[in-house]
Amino acid sequence: IQFRVNDIKASHAKLAAMLTPYNAYFGTDNETTQSNRIDDNLTIRVPAANFDKLMDGLMGESVYTDSKDISAEDVTADYVDIAARLKTKKEVAERYTALLKQANKIPDILEVENNLRTMQEEIEATEGRLKVMDDQVAYSTIVLNMYQTLQFAPQPETGFLSNLWQAVVNGWRGVLNFIVGFAGIWPLDIVILLL
Question: pTM score > 0.85 for this model?
Answer without folding.
Answer: no
